[in-house]
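Justification of computing resources. Each target in the renewal requires a structure prediction run like the one illustrated here; the chain below, 105 residues long, is used simply to show the kind of job we budget for.
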Amino acid sequence: MILSTTPTIEGHTIREYKGVVTGETIIGANFVKDFFAGIRDIVGGRSGSYEKVLREAKNTSMKEMMDRAQEIGANAIVGIDIDYETIGSNSSMLMVATSGTAVVI
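Resulting structure tokens:
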């Protein structure tokens, strides 16, 4: 599956548009990660635990979107958009939503 944030894929002609596909993931960050991330924020540096959660959520959302594209016969997705939002009480959950146009090239 070819993935692109652009509306076209260089060197390929889009033969058929299959429609919009999406993937959504909601992941909760636990108390221990929040505690250590808070300490890291105070002393400076990157928060490896949050970066790992972000990558995991993005990868899961992208895989869900690719699975949906394959189910409808697409072999590429163009115009991909990735959105990150915190939700829940005290913004304790992370939502990653991906969307794009499933196509046949």
